[in-house]
Amino acid sequence: MPLGLLALAIGGFGIGLTEFVIAGLLPEVAADLRVDEAAAGWLISGYALGVAVGAIALTAAVIRRPRKRVLLGLMVLFVAGNLVSATAPDYQTMLLGRVIASLCHGAFFGIGAVVAADMVPRARRSAAIAVMFTGLTLANVLGVPFGTFIGQAYGWRATFWAITGIGILAFAGIAALVPASANGAGGTSLRGELRAFRSGQVWLSLVVTVLGFGGMFGAFTYIAYTLTEVGGFSSGAVPWLLVLFGGGLFAGNIAGGKAADRRLDASLIGLLAGLAVVLAAFALLASSQPATMVLLVLMGGFGFGTVPGLQTRIMNYAPGAATLASSANIAAFNIGNALGAWIGGAAIAAGLGYTSPLWAGSGLTVLAVAVLAAAAFAAARADRTTGAPGVPGADVAPESAAGLDAVGPRAAR
């Protein structure tokens, strides 16, 4: 494994920690900054909106810059945002720090995925991307509980000081370990990168990401209510149960990356179909505590197992213009999170009960399977028509003109 992947994983760990740890510290932050729960919630919502905006806008702004230098600049932005949060004298400054830190999130994972894929042979691209995303999964499994503990023991600002230190470590690691070859220019131009979005397969990949992740995180957003109100767990048990979910994320990410390198579309269809089944089974068995613990692991495993493959798929269908497409897919993950949470919340508000987000998530995931199956069929049919050779790690030949044109206008090289 190239050591540069480890440096990217450390950056991913810090960014994941910044995104998720605030949830466990929200009461302390709200009390210290003298705001109510609704206002404190914007420290989470504002971050999510910043991710979606930064993934596209910031990537577009730096598209012609050397990728390694861009990653280093993004880590500087990350450190600055968390430093502002750690020293914030009031709520407005804290919110500003959260937004500053969020802007680097989408661009880091989008550009970092391209850099990670370029460090290894093509047949191992998904596995390399999975290593980078391992940092994000570990932030859920280990970082969030530990960060919450630090914040509760030494004050919430101590957590953000620690995250600032992780950002400095990631900067040093990227500077020292990411190869000089990654400092080559990114896209040829913004106009050239935008041509990737003339491919119907790129748009279908984005739709699959929104629906698939919307299904999982729509269910996950309200999982505490499901665990306590339906499963009968105490509120104190919820953090430990979420460690099971985080363990599933970690294992699924690694296994999904390896599976995607063997058969990309087939593995994605299998994982999404498995997720739909798991969510439906969870809805049926949520009152059983043993079943709940098993299904939490499986939900995380099948859900996050799709991430390396989804990221690889959109990059495959945007040859020569993968940077902006990769970042757009990170934005799609966050749009899916918001969509799923909205649908799940609407289902609960309609009086359908605390298992309704699981049913809604299963339905969204079934739609993702249908869209991906149609996209894969269209691409494979076009590939058979032209007789173009396949791409290692994929089921179709996304770099052939026919593959790109399978669902939509011709994508420029």
From TrEMBL:
Residues 4-386 form the Major facilitator superfamily (MFS) profile domain. InterPro entries: MFS, MFS_dom, MFS_Efflux_Transporters, MFS_trans_sf. Pfam families: MFS_1 (PF07690). CDD domains: MFS_NepI_like (cd17324). Its main location: membrane. Residues 386-413 are annotated as: Disordered. It is found in: Cell membrane. SUPFAM superfamilies: MFS general substrate transporter. It is a multi-pass membrane protein. It comes from the Bacteria. The chain crosses the membrane at residues 42-63, 70-89, 95-117, 129-154, 160-182, 202-225, 237-256, 268-286, 292-310, 331-352, 358-380. Keywords: Cell membrane, Membrane, Transmembrane, Transmembrane helix. PANTHER family: INNER MEMBRANE TRANSPORT PROTEIN YDHP, PURINE EFFLUX PUMP PBUE. This is MFS transporter. It comes from Arthrobacter halodurans.
